[in-house]
């Protein structure tokens, strides 16, 4: 008896192929957002780690010098930014020494100062993503409003204004130290409006609002509607852009009762839930 074998199928039909392609497309559409979300979470975590290191460097400066760095500080007779003032504390003693001795001063790109969610378009520049809390935006003719009750970083180069941890009456865990900012100036600049973030009850620009040349506000490209910030006790968290401006001013001022904040806003007692 001769048994004939049935011929097997050797390929997909067009309909089957289209079904497979459709399924793969649907799976990719579901997978890509999760991958992107995971990648952004990693970038945001790296940004927080960098802020934590910078905050620790500023706190170490307070311990060593009995003051936080000035947004305008002095190294080797040079007017420098708060970033240059802490270079030795972020493992860049080489750069600090060049400023201190006025020898071959250079301004390289420093990875710790660049948020991975906002990478530079050109490498090799002294770019910076982080700004310091300089307090009240309105400055008098003789800097009368630059005082420790309003913020933690001041013009030490010209006016010798200093703030220390002892000036933080409202609690280090409730006082902002550093923030990220899309409009931050290069780390070698020392202009107040380019390397700090400020508060002003008469000009309430909120987090992630388009900053002006006078009032730079915390801002980032992170998802979730907010920015990463560091507090004066060193802890780092994500600050919501929907935060009340009243709460924002409280977080900015180390001593609200003695600050230039409107009297009606000074008696607010914060809890962690107010800004998480």
3D architecture notes:
- By secondary structure, this protein is an alpha+beta fold.
- The protein has 6 helices and 7 strands; from the N terminus they run αββααβαβαβββα.
- It has a 5-stranded mixed sheet. Strands 1-2 form a two-stranded antiparallel sheet.
- A hairpin with a 2-residue loop joins β1 (72-75) and β2 (78-81).
- The longest helix is centred in the N-terminal third of the chain and has 52 residues, at 14-65.
- The model has no long low-confidence stretch (mean pLDDT 88).
Q: Helix-strand pattern, N to C?
A: HEEHHEHEHEEEH
Tell me the radius of gyration: 25 Å
The poorly predicted ranges are none
Mean model confidence by pLDDT: 88
Which tags fit this structure?
single chain, 276 residues, alpha+beta, five-stranded mixed β-sheet, two-stranded antiparallel sheet, 6 helices, 29% helix
List strands and helices in order, with pairings.
Elements: H1 14-65, E1 72-75, E2 78-81, H2 82-85, H3 93-101, E3 130-136, H4 156-159, E4 176-180, H5 192-195, E5 196-199, E6 226-231, E7 236-240, H6 245-252
Parallel strand pairs: 3-5
Antiparallel strand pairs: 1-2, 3-4, 4-6, 6-7
Gist of the model:
The protein has helices at 14-65, 82-85, 93-101, 156-159, 192-195, 245-252, and strands at 72-75, 78-81, 130-136, 176-180, 196-199, 226-231, 236-240.
């Amino acid at each position: 008896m001769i048994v004939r074998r049935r011929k097997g199928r050797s390929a997909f039909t067009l309909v089957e192929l289209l079904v497979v392609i459709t399924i793969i497309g649907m799976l990719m559409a579901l997978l890509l957002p999760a991958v992107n979300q995971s990648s952004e979470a990693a970038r945001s975590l790296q940004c927080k780690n960098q802020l934590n290191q910078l905050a620790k460097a500023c706190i170490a400066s307070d311990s060593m010098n009995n003051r936080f760095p000035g947004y305008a500080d002095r190294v080797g007779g040079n007017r420098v930014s708060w970033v240059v003032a802490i270079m030795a504390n972020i493992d860049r003693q080489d750069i600090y020494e060049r400023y201190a001795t006025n020898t071959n001063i250079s301004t390289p790109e420093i990875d710790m100062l660049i948020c991975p969610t906002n990478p530079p378009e050109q490498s090799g520049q002294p770019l910076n993503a982080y700004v310091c809390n300089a307090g009240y935006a309105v400055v008098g003719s003789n800097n009368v409003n630059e005082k420790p009750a309003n913020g933690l970083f001041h013009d030490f180069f010209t006016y010798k204004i200093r703030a220390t941890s002892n000036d933080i009456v409202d609690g280090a865990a409730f006082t902002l130290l550093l923030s990220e900012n899309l409009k931050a100036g290069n780390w070698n600049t020392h202009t107040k409006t380019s390397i700090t973030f400020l508060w002003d009850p008469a000009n309430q620009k909120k987090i992630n609002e388009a900053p002006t040349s006078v009032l730079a506000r915390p801002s980032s490209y992170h998802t979730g509607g907010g920015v990463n910030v560091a507090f004066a006790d060193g802890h780092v968290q994500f600050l919501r852009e929907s935060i009340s401006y009243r709460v924002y001013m409280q977080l900015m001022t180390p001593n609200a009762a003695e600050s230039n904040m409107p009297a009606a806003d000074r008696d607010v007692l914060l809890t962690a839930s107010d800004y998480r």
